[in-house]
């Protein structure tokens, strides 16, 4: 906290009439509400604009690797941060694990559905004429975690045929909200945001790799560094917690 305040004082003192500086924050779509709230609470110096760019972690990582201008990247898994490191777009020294999350299975709030996660017969019955909404299992972190869960349950070969894949987890949530899919696998944080769905099962986190959101600093901009530090501040942690995330490490 003291470190961040000292940095802010220095930046406030040095910011002047040099024109507007933009800090571009690329963040996984599941972070949309939390990051938007943090940006609103951030005391940005005059002339500094924090611009969020939301989307699937895979899409954002590829954009950044292909030269899209970005200052901070927050991925919904470590794979896509590792990808940027391999592409020499970011140094591992500039990456810190920021948040944790977990998966839930959801349905529309008006559906009368019960689910034994381990029952192949029940999954077959529920999805006989229905779809399961989840992120693309090959690229979207939420979908990759979900696939891992089903593989550990020895159900993936059966479930895969009924999956409605989406480009990001928010689209999977929307399919269930619109009743275009009977069930969905999303993050707990997404489920908390919707009044149109309910959780029917919270899988054991041991069924998939820990869901970790790493945050990386892509530029040497002082203003980008200040906002990056703010993400780990107590005020930002409180906002993340309000949206259901678990704060992890301090840089």
TrEMBL record:
Source domain of life: Bacteria
A GO cellular component annotation in the UniProt record: outer membrane-bounded periplasmic space
UniProt keyword annotations, A-Z: Metal-binding, Molybdenum, Signal
Family of the protein in this entry: Belongs to the bacterial solute-binding protein ModA family.
Residues of the signal peptide: 1-19
MF term (GO), any: metal ion binding
The keyword Metal-binding belongs to this UniProt entry's keyword annotation: yes
Pfam families according to UniProt: SBP_bac_11 (PF13531)
Self-association state and partner proteins as the record states: The complex is composed of two ATP-binding proteins (ModC), two transmembrane proteins (ModB) and a solute-binding protein (ModA).
GO annotation, biological process: molybdate ion transport
NCBIfam families: modA
The protein's name: Molybdate transporter
Binding site for molybdate: 30, 57, 142, 169, 187
Native species: Vibrio navarrensis
């Amino acid at each position: 906290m003291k470190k961040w305040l000292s940095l802010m004082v220095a930046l406030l003192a040095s910011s002047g009439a040099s024109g507007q500086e933009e800090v571009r924050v690329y963040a996984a779509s599941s972070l949309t509400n939390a990051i938007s709230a943090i940006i609103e609470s951030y005391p940005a110096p005059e002339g500094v604009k924090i611009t969020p760019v939301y989307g699937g972690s895979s899409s954002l990582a590829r954009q950044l690797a292909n030269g899209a201008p970005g200052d901070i990247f927050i991925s919904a898994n470590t794979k896509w941060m590792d990808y940027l490191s391999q592409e020499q777009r970011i140094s591992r020294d500039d990456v810190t694990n920021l948040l944790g999350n977990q998966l839930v299975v959801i349905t529309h709030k008006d559906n009368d559905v019960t689910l034994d996660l381990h029952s192949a017969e029940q999954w077959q019955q529920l999805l006989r004429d229905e779809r399961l909404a989840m992120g693309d299992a090959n690229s979207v972190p939420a979908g990759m975690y979900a696939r891992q869960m089903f593989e550990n349950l020895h159900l993936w070969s059966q479930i895969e045929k009924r999956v409605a894949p989406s480009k990001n987890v928010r689209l999977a949530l929307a399919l269930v909200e619109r009743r275009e899919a009977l069930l969905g696998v999303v993050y707990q944080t997404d489920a908390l945001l919707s009044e149109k769905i309910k959780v029917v099962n919270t899988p054991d986190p041991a069924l998939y790799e820990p869901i970790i959101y790493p945050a990386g600093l892509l530029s040497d901009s002082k203003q980008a560094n200040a906002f990056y530090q703010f993400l780990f501040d107590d005020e930002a942690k409180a906002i993340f917690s309000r949206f259901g995330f678990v704060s992890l490490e301090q840089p």
